[in-house]
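New to this. Please check this fold:
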Amino acid sequence: MTIKARTLRRTAALLLLTGLALTGCWDNRPIDERAIVMVLGVSSRHGRLALRFQIPTASALTALPSGSSGNSQSESFFVLPAEGRTVASAFGRAQASVSRDLYLGQIQALVLSAKLPPRVLRAAMTGLARLEPVDRTIFVLTTPDPVTRLLSTPTPLNQLPNEYFSTLFNCPDCATLHLQVRLWQLMDRLVTPGVDPFLPVARLGPHGIELNQVALYAKDRYLATLSPQETVAFALLTGRAVKPTLSAPTPLGETALRVGTCRGEFSARIVHGRPQARFTVSIDGQLVEGPALDGDRTARARVLQAVARQVTARCLALIRHTQALGSDPFGVGRRLHWTDPRGFQALGPWDRAWKQTRVTVTVHVETTRAGNIRPLGPNF
C-alpha cells in the first residue's frame, strides 16, 4: 500500500468518526418514537413478577407546567401491564406490546407491593440491578393497595404521579416527614448485616394518595406498617422530622410544640456479651398551643420536660415494637458490625440479638419562642 493510499484511508476514517460524533448520541430517538417510563410498579401474580409501566402521553410531556394543555390527569398517562418469570422477560413482553421504544432511563419512582413474597422481591431487585439504564438513585416506596390502582390515582395539585413523588422526596421542607429512600439504599440494606430496610408507604386515601407511614422489613420480608404516630417517632429518632406538631399533657395543661429542627443519633456497644444502644433526640421548636407562659422560665422548663417525657416514651415504645418484630431499621447492628466485628459475630443472628438489646432514649427539647397559637400539621 502506497503512502498516498494510507493517507486517504486515514482521512476517510477520521471523517467517518467526525460524522458519528456530530450526530450526538447514536441511540437518540425522537420523543414520539419512545415510550418513556416515569414510574415502575412491581407486584406478583400467581408467583410471577407483574410489572406496571406508567407512561405519560406525548402531549403531557410537552405540556406547559401550568397545565394549559387542557388534558385531565387521567388523559396524561397510561399504565402498561406485563408479567414474566423475571424482570427481563416481563420487560420483553411489555416491549412487544407497544410500537414505541420502551425507555427506562427517566424512571423517577419504583413502587413495590407490600404483598411481594420474599423470593419475588429478591428476583425483582436482581433483575433491576441488571436492567439498563435504570438509575440507582430513583425513589422507592411500597403500597398495600393494588399497584395498578395506585398508579392510576390522581395526585394533589393534578401533578403527574412521577412529579408528585419526586417533588415530595426531593424537597425536605415540602412534607412533615422526610422519608425518602433511594434504590441504592434499599439494595444496600438488603445485603448489609445488622440493618433492615424501611420504605415509605403510599396508600389510597379519601383525597387521593397519602404518604405518612413507614413499612418495616426483615431484609426482603415485609413485616408491618407503622401507624402515623409511630412514623413520627421514627422520624424523630432518625432525624427525618421536619415540622410535625408534638402534643403532650403537661402540669399546666395540654401543650403543642411545632418542631423546627430535629437531630437524631445513637451510639452502640457490646457490654459483657450483650448489645446496648443509646438514642439521643434533640428538638428545637416553637410552642404553638398551651398556657401563656409570659416569660416564666420555671413554667416553661416544666412544660418542656413534660413534652420531652412524652416524646421519650413514644420513641422507646417504637423501638421496642421494632425489637418485637425482629427488624432493625435504625442500623444498630450495622454500627456494631463496623466498630466491633468479632463481638457482633459472637452475638449470633442479629434479628434475635436485636430483641435482647438494651435501649435507652434521651430527648432534649428547646424552644426559640413561645406563643398561644393553634397547632399546625398532624399531632403526635
About this structure: DSSP finds twelve helices and 14 strands in the chain. The chain has two domains: 33-58+76-222, 228-370.
